[in-house]
Enamine deaminase RidA (YjgF/YER057c/UK114 family) (Phyllobacterium ifriqiyense), 154 residues
Amino acid sequence: MSNPVESRLAELGISLPVAAAPAANYVPYSQTGNLLLTSGQLPLVGGKLVHTGLLGADLDVAQGQACAQACAVNILAQAKAALGDLEKIVRVIKITVFVASTPGFTEQHLVANGASDLLVAALGDIGRHARSAVGTAALPLNAPVEIEAIIEVR
């Protein structure tokens, strides 16, 4: 493979899926100047949610991290669809991680590590980013995690 990012993903046992089409009246990504913004990505693998439910009730942190990792893979799939080549990524600037959780669950930041760790493993230092991890009552399709990204591109 001539693409270092996709080579690193392959070493991690990850192949990028075809970027998901929007499920409603929005676009999956938008670019302005050198910024690429992704719409929220759900933890879909093969068109199905990895898990459903709430963190703190139905799922534990490790399951949430697996969902966040799947969201990060889908962010990279959208970036590839937008750019044609992941080597055009200059830097992941920020991700916002929404975690559907019970009122008493306070480990959203640990769930978000699933995405952060994957982005750094795949992209190296350019994958390091600012981040928000936000608890929410519910997400579309009963997904436990949804993540959006802001990426600087060439």
In short: The first strand starts at residue 29 and ends at 32. Residues 4-16+36-153 form a domain with the 60s Ribosomal Protein L30; Chain: A; fold (CATH 3.30.1330.40).
